[in-house]
């Protein structure tokens, strides 16, 4: 989410409009809020509770980005997503107050918080607040907002109060799991000038701690796509969700990765075709891409996600000459 934070700062309000136009949905690391009572940038009690909840929830989970100034709710199609802009009046005052409040709204105090404002052209002096929260190594963190002395966690697209067993686990934990990615190439079948392979993506637990609720997010795929369980393609090992070119795989409560072991996360199909001029090329690849490519973010509950851009070589696929 730090990448999105930096991208929105570079794009300005056009980036906010893009998120709304793409009907972006909230998820584990992204939350939208609108300021309910807007008195020219005044930081209200509700604002303190909203910010403290996000700081605690993101820091105690995988980290994330809070954007204040976007209304997210179910539309006519009942899909809950970014629907409309609601820029904050008096954004400079709101930003200054938010910076002052961060150190008082959470205990123990947080490192790794970035906060910035984006100006809006819709109303003079209005804008949007971005708050990036890094996963904390000192968790759990408690909200110190008035009437809200609670610990929060992020699950799915919502914040929840941590239950007793969550807190017991968090206080007893001396470390966090570390998840890395491992990709194995398998041959599926071929006929004539076509060969099909499957990339088996695994999460590898390189730590001494059990990894729970593993997940994998794929973006910017070129020359490859998730298998669909038909036409010689193996079925997916985990629940898959696809939205606006981003493909996500989520493990459930039983999908743990024990220390020193791997968990099969996803199958990705790569199809090569051969012509007389260029030789073997991946089907549906971007112009000039001789091998498949994608960006993968992999992680689990309570662990900082890792971002990978695997590098493939044509020789890895053992194609006929």
Write a concise synopsis of the structure shown:
With 321 residues, this protein is an alpha+beta fold.
Summarize the helices and strands and which ones pair or pack:
Elements: H1 2-11, H2 13-21, E1 30-33, H3 45-59, E2 64-68, E3 70-74, E4 80-85, H4 91-105, E5 106-107, E6 113-119, E7 127-133, E8 142-143, E9 152-155, E10 158-161, H5 164-172, E11 179-191, E12 194-205, E13 215-222, E14 225-226, E15 239-243, E16 246-250, E17 262-275, E18 279-282, E19 293-299, E20 306-308
Parallel strand pairs: 1-2
Antiparallel strand pairs: 2-7, 3-4, 5-8, 6-7, 9-10, 11-12, 12-17, 13-16, 13-19, 14-17, 15-16, 17-18, 19-20
Which key phrases capture this entry?
alpha+beta, Methyltransferase, Cobalt-precorrin-4 Transmethylase, Domain 2, Immunoglobulin-like, 2 domains, 18% helix, 37% strand, globular, Schlafen AlbA-2 domain-containing protein, Schlafen_AlbA_2_dom, Schlafen_AlbA_2_dom_sf
Structure notes:
By secondary structure, this protein is of the alpha+beta class. The protein folds into two domains: 171 residues, Schlafen, AAA domain (Methyltransferase, Cobalt-precorrin-4 Transmethylase, Domain 2), CATH 3.30.950.30; 139 residues, Sandwich (Immunoglobulin-like), CATH 2.60.40.10. It contains five helices and 20 strands. Strands 11, 12, 14, 17 and 18 form a five-stranded antiparallel β-sheet that branches. It has a five-stranded antiparallel β-sheet with strand order 15-16-13-19-20, with no helix packed on it. It has a four-stranded mixed β-sheet with strand order 1-2-7-6, with helices on both faces. Strand 17 and strand 18 form a beta hairpin. Helix 1 packs across helix 2. The radius of gyration is 22 Å and the shape is globular. The model has no long low-confidence stretch (mean pLDDT 90).
